[in-house]
Task: structure prediction
Amino acid sequence: MTARQQFIATLLLGVAFLILFRQLEPSNYQIGLMMRCMILMIVTIGLNILIGHAGLVSLGQAALYGLGAYVAAWLAVKQGVQFLPAVIAGVVVTGLFGAALAYPTVRVRGVYLAVITIAFGLVFQNILVEWLPVTGGTQGLIGIPRGNVFGVSLTRPIYFSVVAGCLIIAFIIQYNVIHSRYGRAMRATAQSENAAKALGINLAATRTLAFVISAALAGLAGGLYTFLNLFVNYETFTFFHSVSFLLMVILGGTGTLVGPVVGASILTYIAEILQDLQEWQIFAYGFLLAAVMFVMPQGIVGTCGALWERFVVKSRGRETHGWPDGSVALAEILGPGEESKQIALETKALTLRFGGLTAVDNVSLEVQSGTVHALIGPNGAGKSSLLNLISGFYVPSEGSITFFGAGIAGLPSHELARRGIARTFQNTELFGQMTVLENVLAGFHSHYRNTLAETLLRLPRFGREESQFFSQARQLLKFVGLSDFAEEEARNLPFGHQRRLEIARALALRPRMLLLDEPAAGLTHGEIEHLKKLIRLLAGHGITVVLVEHHVEMVMTVSDHVTVLDYGRVIASGSAAQVQKNAVVIEAYFGHGRVVPTRSPSPVLLDQPGAAE
Amino acid sequence: MTWNFWRSKSCAFALFAGSAFALSLSIAPAEAQKAEPCIAGSWELTGPLAHTGLAIKMGIDAAVDEINEAGGVLGQKLRVIAYDDQGEPSRAVDNARRIGDRDNCIIMIGGYRTPNALAIRTVLSEMGQPWMGVISAGTRVIEWETGANEWMFRVSMKDRWVAPFLVDHAIQRSKTKKIGFLYEATGWGQGALVDVEATAKAKGIALVGKETFNIADQDMSAQLIRLRDAGADSLVFWGVDREADAILRSMDRIGYKPNIISAWGIGVQLGKTAGQLTEGVVVAGTYAWTGDLSPRAQKVWQRIKASNKLQQPSELVLPSGTANAYDAVFVIAEALKIAGAYDKKKLRDAFYQVKYQGIVANYSPAFEKTAERHDAILPSYYKLLAYHKGILLPIEQTPYAAKF
Amino acid sequence: MGEILQYLLTGLSLGGIYALVALGFFIMWEATKAANFTHGEVYMFGAVATVVLVERGLPFLIAAPIAIAAAAVIGALIERLLVRPFNKEPNAIGWMLTTIAAGIMIESFATITYGPLGRPLHSPLAEHPIRFAGAGIYAQEMLLPIVAVMVMFGLEAFYRRTTLGRAMRAVAFNRTTAGLMGINPNRIALIAYALAAAIGALAGILIAPVVQAAPAMGALIGLKAFGVAIVAGIANARGVVIVGICYGVIEKLIEGYISTGARNAVGFTLMILVLLLFPQGIFGRREVVKV
Result:
């Protein structure tokens, strides 16, 4: 069942269920309970996006929910504001706080972020209790007038539809965000920050978006809650409730589409059942949380999905095709290559120091566009550091870097990616839990033109761009021979395939320059031959390729120009033939007991008249 | 795969519109029915103040058992249903709905906390559900700002009457006539602030200090230093045992020993934890089970003792609450007899005609049709208790009885 | 004059609690890069278990060590059952939820069996306060910062001088490599959690005579101490104790001079701001990770 089918099916089932529910003539109490359940589903949907997709754990969601509730309540009680503007104000204020909460993610992650969200929740709670004139202190705000929209009083039956409508909208928003470049960007930032940056994804912006969406949904839920309960009180928005929301997300299935709905409804109704346990209620609650973690960490929907995959989905035979596939029209995907020969990359006196260690020492080099330029040298020579400098992962201590004439030293990686510098990594940094196709699509991220609004509303341009990039992504997969693996999760690929995928993903950036960090490592002899062909193809297309490699034989046969580094300094630079004969190079590699690791069965081609000292 | 989202989007919208239409056409809620002979309460049965819920339930159970043994009311035996709200107002609202709507009990009994009682005001009047408070002494629970309370009654104290009761005693005990007010940062304490300030104003005295503290605070030296420096030698106190213990210790640390005249948040527990530090602390209440009991009260105590496996009356940690709850059930039973049926509206109307001698007071009548008189216990029945040698006794049995 | 001295004294005592509990977080984090959200409940357990044993007739000096030992066992169990299975990947957060769940269960179980009310624990040091210059403090309370500092020195000596201590530091630095050196990281983790729990329980026992032992006493202390540890950078024992004691004093000063009610809001906001300024904590090291 595809995601879209799941989405539509859930929507239909949900609406049918709600209609059926009303037909059964439930009591006021039951209607109230169902409405509260739906409101909590809205919160959970937002939290699911934050945790399940952006990978940011927030233990302060109850505070955002409470903020939306209190803003709406205060406006209604103290300022006489109507339902619609009050709720909308709640959403806006909460969204702003969500953006503020995203700011720390720039600097802290994981547990540190969790602590900040916990602290935020406790601060909010304290303010609620202390700011008597505004929040009503511990008593809260009572006597909220019933909502009124265009003269229609929101009594229970009508309000039920309003809440249901909001839930449906939230559910649609969730789907629309997740299955779009924004959702892919969120998952990318969660699974590999470095790769995401290198593809032009702005981490801070993506995380802020995730926070804002989840906060806005929590704020909406809060506003709806206010007009349901007709009073707000700090005890509904405590740390314990933040933990409950987390439990709902996990119980349902973190990151799944239907998970939040399932989790929220189960927990709401279980709370009803737990009432009978009296003193043991809270204990049972904790026990449930622990049990879910042990038995079903993927949640109900996640576990069902996994079982479905295992028992129902028949594994298809996957065929690995040859690469590079010359039939793929690169020009269509990558655009026209560079026409004239220019200096693509130039560094002048580039230096990088880590404390006392100088990793890159006064490196000046020039790379011509459309050529293959290799960086070689013994271990610790500074090759990867140099690559990281060029791709914006390190900031140089001294010196300059220019890319097609423009200075780029110190620019962040995602900015460089947008300027056309793509790279692969020494330890393949794939987005492991995304499919192969999605990995490549993530590469196209910076080329999308459609906006968030178009994505949320699914306006025509969204559909067009998705079609276009999907087909181009498939073309790139065909180029590297991975067409059959499109729906496979990247982490399940064999190693050589992962390498290919990383290159395909880097190509999706439509780069002007491609940096390859030890692309041949771990590849078989045959795969290396294919790799060489691919590199030459790309160069022929006008893409500048800079590669760091230990595999000397490969380097010598594929490169136009070779630069040799040792101890961070350039010790030789020239054509492959020249460098091979260079005495300094030979000493660096073979002299004084150092050995160059090579995986090639054929001997290293070096002229060495009695080199041993 | 074609991404024809227009189709799926329109589809979704059409569904939404259709269902919204269908949903709004739905049937109205179920009609009101005859009520059940159950007495239900939303009490704090778990959490740090769980002893309060249990104390109330003890009084209710004792009364209901006694009534059922005599044949019940109107030929039916009464049932007690207990819901736990963990002290949270929103849970109290839920429970109120359960009780009024799902269980359809003839009457709901209130719990310990004023904020919870305040929270359910609206929902009770929407449902037309009679409610009987037995503690939650906040004035606004019964006397609404909008003046529209029709369903909530109380056999308990009223903070607006407690305030002058306590302030009087504080002034009498004070040598410098400088009074301070120390209250917990909850709906109850914050509500009492209003009542105490009004009292002070009416009597023409100024409170030299008003300090608040949070639940679970363990050190109040900052507040006490300020009160001490303002010269207060008598403090009116609105808080519960746990924080009172911390306050007594904070006072001990800084060597500040004012008179403490407290509302009934302080109970028997304080003596167990603070020991000698409690000497002279005066507490308001409606009843004391320690000391001499009337014959009827003796029997009630024996019943409670047996049902709950207690040894001493001092184990009743909320003496006033248990006594109020006991009387409240009998008042309800009397009203039911007058009403002649298990009908919520008839019961409510019958309340104004109840005359009954309880263990706390002689209710004659219990209620009147004024905003003020939905409270059954008049200030003349308020009592003072005092701590002497670690035990809370009626003040007459201690050296601290007012000699005026 | 008397005021600020009073705030300092009570702040030192409160800070001592934070320091001891935060030290526990430090020890656990070093060993497993995970924290134990139950830690506040272990603090409570120390106090409550001692009270129960003393009520049964055991002298305090026997009851306390038994309670501490029991707490150590609980700590080890938590590591083995709740943290280890959920800490396999580098960025796992499962342990957060399992330990929160355990914390909820422990506290509610205690509330049901022990009762929600606080019970006194007698100690001669908590009977009469020591008063001078207008301020007063129970000797019992001063035990806390003193014990915190002693434990800090003890830990530092332990880490530096004993084999086991060095093994624990190795595991903290790099689990895999330590494993390759023959150190069993799992055993180290167990010991670390047991040690941390013992220290936490000790803090609870020390303060119980002053604040009464009640099931609800641990939750907020645990959260605050965790924040303290994070703000200190969970880098070394000294930093954690310094930040803990400072935070206690700052809280009291906030109470005294700004607002008693808002002390949590102010305190936690401070924590957030400090974390933004020092993303690795005040004493933490900035790690440069190879790309």
User: Anything to note?
Assistant: Residues 330-593 of chain A form a domain with the Rossmann fold fold (CATH 3.40.50.300).
